[in-house]
Design brief:
856 residues; alpha/beta; Beta-Lactamase
């Protein structure tokens, strides 16, 4: 393997270069060889003696600097790293400890090793003298620093600082100056050697000139080689050293540092010097960064923090502390006394002089006794502050304070909400029951009044949820005004309220209070500039006769409340034992509903719809019936509301859609079927999917399906309502507004959505032959619908006079008992499969079923 040219020493290279001219001029060559040997001696001394000396003394200087920095950090740590015991984990994470003593010992060994290396290379008396002076100065510094270390180890931080600043710093500077003198002298030797080398080089050129002709090519080659391999690297090294000495640490080398000759050694020595300088600067930068981190950490603590010395003078405080005490910048500076801060707070009115003096004495006493303080203070401005004071080992103390006002308010609010309704601030159900339990244990007689606010749904539909909240708050206010202070008021849920009348001597007192409450709630409420009337229904139970535990009393008052609501809004009823029967029936129906669908107990009956112009059947309205295994045929009026309240209406509604579509798919076109959609189903996200599935599975064209939706179902959310209507319309189904005219927004919805049909409610049809108001309303509805291209259907037609009047007024469609009663699906199939055009005639005149079988 061929070795690199940089693997050979300069001596070998010079010998090879100048050996070429030995044969030409022996005499000149001998002289030249002598000169070269002399030059080699200088070069060897430069690389083997001077540079090691220079590097050794420079290593001493660098190690001295690092040693002194470590000593300074040792003292700094002794001052600033004295922290409360409970903060040691946090500080250990933020400022990982460094064993400065170990670092100083390592550096001392490095200095001794470098001094030993330097001593071995000394060759002049002056160097010995300068080294002796340095060793004396260094010994003085080490002695002073040893005393500082002893003080630090004994916990005497302030004495250590004083000794360090008073003696150690000066002796360090003296020792460092002596080291600089040695360094300067060694550097001057190098310059002298360089001058001698240059002199030798000129002598050699002069003598070589005698044989210039014979050795021209050899000399030129030697010069080129010297320039490239020696002179240029030396010049680069010299320039780099000058820049390093001047403080420019960016000096780089073009020449390769992996050369194994003297130039390579010189380059590596200079690079080592540069790395040592960089290492020292990095250590200084690390120390600065640690200080910055400490400042940032203290400034960003989530609590107010301040440290005072043994004289109660401020050492440091973070911005949160200054802000909490509203300190101006001059009072947040190091050296400000605690007394000055207290005087500022007294002047600002934040604390009384007596209070300030008490706090001052408390802190001083705790610090002297080495006992921490942890207390929660209520300030005069209402703030609640968590205060901690921790005595420090040096006689000073640290305080951390946190404003916990908001936290306390939240805790108090949580405790309040545990027993109260958040909207009305009245007692909640559990707290109400607890009060009842205490009254029962005392053996007291009292009344429980349960209220349900009427028409809340209508208020929500008309004005929004915010208006409902205003009404509920207003109800709570009126109950508070009406009931005496001994009564307990509660809101259970929604529009349900309760009153615990503790001073009720009997039913008479309870009834008097009930009347006052009913009268108070009957007055209109103001909602967003409008008047809204709600009213209430009420059930009353008297203890202990109507129950001996809170749950039973509440249940009995609810039973009375349901009876009151069943008899009409705005009334109250006392609990009676017989009322339990109605509740039992309701529970039985609810239990039966849960299994009725799976047991196939539901049926769809169909009532014909006719065209008044041709008297032909257009289709049927699907009406739900429940054939109960023990109670027989049950009217929808007895179970639909229960199904909606329990959520059972959703699977039931999907079943009705599928059954009705299956039925209509077997009818001859264009007969259609109308299906009622409950308010619960209408707002169910699955409605559109259920309609699509029913159409797809039955194969029924969407145009033969009519979906009847009551106005009440559409009032809840206008944007969502329109989106649902548009989604159903997009399927192709016909959209019918049921019970038109019974609500508040019928005409508004006609404007917003293109209904295919409107059904005129039976309450208007009943009076078309006897009541002028009914006649006017029906005529107006027919006229409006006709002008908008909407089909009209009159429901509840029960007489021939009504039928003829509707024909004369151009009503398009009709249904009712006069036209035909609802019939099972089989009868509808049997009839229309034979003669659909005769449907109206065939259905008309059949025996009527009881009118209690109302459509869904």
């Amino acid at each position: 393997m061929v070795e690199s040219k940089h693997s050979f020493s300069i001596r070998a290279k010079l010998a090879a270069a100048f050996g070429l001219s030995l044969g030409a001029v022996v005499a000149i060559s001998i002289v030249g060889v002598n000169q070269l040997q002399t030059f080699r001696q200088f070069t060897t001394e430069l690389s083997d003696a001077w540079l090691p000396e220079l590097a050794a003394i420079n290593n001493v200087r660098i190690a001295m600097t690092e040693f002194h920095q470590a000593a300074a950090r040792q003292v700094d740590n002794a001052i600033h790293h004295t922290i409360p015991r409970h903060l040691e984990p946090e500080y250990s994470l933020l400022y990982p400890g460094i064993d400065q003593a170990e670092i100083m010992a390592t550096l001392a060994r490095r200095i001794e090793s470098a001094i030993s290396s330097f001593t071995d290379a000394l060759d002049t008396e002056e160097e010995h003298r300068l080294l002796g002076e340095f060793l004396i100065a260094w010994g003085e510094y080490r002695s002073a620093q040893a005393e500082v270390t002893i003080l630090v180890d004994n916990g005497k931080a302030e004495q250590a600082v004083n000794l360090f600043n008073r003696i150690a710093v000066d002796t360090y500077r003296n020792a460092h100056d002596k080291a600089d003198e040695v360094f300067t002298f060694v550097a001057s030797k190098g310059k002298a050697w360089a001058a001698d080398a240059n002199s030798l080089y000129r002598s050699y050129l002069l003598e070589a000139g005698l044989a210039i002709v014979l050795t021209a090519f050899a000399v030129i080659g030697a010069l080129v080689w010297l320039t490239r391999e020696v002179s240029r690297p030396l010049h680069e090294i010299s320039g780099a050293m000058e820049r390093l000495v001047a403080g420019d640490l960016t000096a780089e080398f073009v020449e390769r540092s992996d050369r194994r000759d003297e130039i390579g050694s010189l380059i590596r020595a200079v690079q080592g010097y540069r790395k040592s300088l960089l290492s020292g600067l990095e250590l200084a930068a690390d120390a600065a960064r640690e200080r910055d981190r400490l400042e940032v950490a203290v400034s960003n603590l989530p609590v107010a923090l301040a440290v005072f010395d043994r004289e109660n003078r401020l050492v440091l405080c973070n911005p949160r502390y200054a802000a909490m005490y509203e300190l101006p910048s001059r009072l947040a500076m190091t050296g400000v006394t605690l007394r000055e801060i207290c005087e500022h707070r007294i002047a600002s009115g934040a604390i009384t002089p007596e209070g300030a003096e008490a706090r001052y004495e408390e802190v001083l006493g705790a610090v002297l006794a080495k006992k921490p303080i942890h207390a929660v203070r209520q300030w005069t401005d209402g703030r609640i502050v968590d205060v901690q004071v921790e005595p420090l080992d040096d006689g000073g103390w640290l305080t951390m304070q946190e404003d916990i006002t908001d936290r306390r308010k939240i805790q108090e609010e949580i405790a309040f909400l545990y027993a109260h309704d958040p909207l009305t601030r009245l007692t909640n159900r559990e707290a109400f029951k607890n009060q009842m339990g205490m009254a029962l244990r005392r053996g007291a007689a009292f009344a429980v009044l349960c209220l349900d606010i009427d028409r809340l749904r209508e208020i929500t539909d008309a004005f929004g949820v915010g208006a409902t909240d205003q009404i509920l708050k207003g109800v709570a206010g009126r109950l508070t005004e009406t009931c005496d202070s001994s009564s307990v008021l509660a809101r259970f849920a929604g529009g349900e309220f309760a009153v615990l009348q503790l001073d009720a001597a009997g039913a008479g007192d309870a009834e008097a209070l009930a009347r006052r409450i009913m009268e108070s709630l009957s007055r209109p409420f103001e909602v967003d500039g409008h008047e809204a009337t709600v009213g209430a229904s009420m059930g009353i139970a008297i203890a202990p006769g109507d129950g001996r535990d809170p749950d039973q009393l509440i249940q009995n008052s609810y039973t009375a409340l349901h009876r009151a609501k069943g008899e009409g809004r705005g009334s109250y009823r006392f609990f009676e034992p017989g009322m339990d029967a109605a509740v039992s029936i309701r529970r039985e129906i609810e239990r039966g509903l849960r299994s009725a669908l799976a047991n196939r107990e539901f049926e769809l009956w169909y009532q014909p719809l006719i065209d008044l112009r041709t008297e032909q059947t257009l289709g049927f309205e699907a009406l739900l019936r429940w054939r109960h295994p023990t109670r027989g045929l049950i009217s929808p009026a007895d179970f639909i509301l229960i199904a909606e309240a329990t959520g059972l209406i959703r699977p039931l509604g999907a079943w009705i859609l599928q059954e009705a579509c299956n039925f209509c798919a077997r009818l001859p076109p264009p007969l259609r079927v109308a299906v009622n959609i409950s308010a619960v189903d209408f707002h169910d996200a699955a409605l559109i999917v259920n309609v699509r599935n029913a159409l797809e599975q039955s194969g029924l064209p969407a145009s033969r399906l009519e979906l009847e939706i009551t106005e009440t179902a559409m009032l809840e959310n206008t944007e969502r309502t329109l989106a649902i209507l548009q989604g159903l319309h997009a399927l192709g189904a016909r959209i019918v507004m049921d019970d038109f005219g019974t609500g508040y927004s019928s005409l508004g919805y006609l404007q917003m959505f293109p209904f295919d049909k409107i059904k005129i409610d039976r309450q208007f049809i009943d009076g078309v032959t006897t009541k002028r108001n009914s006649i006017a309303i029906v005529r107006a509805v027919i006229s409006i619908a006709e002008s908008m291209g909407i089909t009209t259907l009159a429901e509840g037609v029960e007489t021939e006079e009504q039928l003829n009047w509707l024909k004369a007024e151009r009503c398009v469609e009709a249904q009712g008992f006069f036209i035909g009663h609802p019939r099972p699906a089989a009868e509808a199939f049997d009839f229309v499969s034979d003669a659909p055009q005769q449907a109206a005639t065939a259905w008309h005149g059949r025996p009527r079923l009881t009118s209690s079988l109302k459509s869904v």
